[in-house]
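tool=predict chain=A
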Amino acid sequence: LVRTDAVINNDFVFKSPAPGTVNIENYSVRWTGQVLPQFSETYTFYAITDDGVRLWVNNVLLIDNWTNQNAAEKSGSIELQAGQKYDIVMDYFQGTGFAVSKLLWSSAGTAKGIVPKTRLFPTLAAARVMEEAADLRTAAVQKQAAVRTNVYPNPVKPGQLVSLQMLASNNTPVAI
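tool=predict ok
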């Protein structure tokens, strides 16, 4: 599953983060992107998770807590410059039970809170993956929309033979 989350602020109590695609237990997530600090100062990042978490900012491992646990807060600090985007990667695994994953930050000029979506950006590679996924979804919809079916005769009488004609306007194979 590839998707964009505006923020990391999840509390899945016996629910899947993506019903029908991801189990409610025993899964992992990797969030990648960039973070843009507002001030030039030391930022403390906090991960509240149930279960394991690892957090890198600017390729520096700030939090390394890859364990089964009840919801707990771990933190690490790093000096950041205002107006400069830094790579950020958060790995998370959900074992069993509650599933909590939250990413917060604070600094001298920033009150402790969830890292806001206005300060998070996709990496160029992540943006390309999302564009490719969107292109595939669009192509699939177009392929489905390009198929026309005709049934002869219509209406059909009991016991009568029917002809089914399926046409794809772009020579796409049609499957029944």
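The longest helix spans residues 124-145. Helices lie at 124-145.
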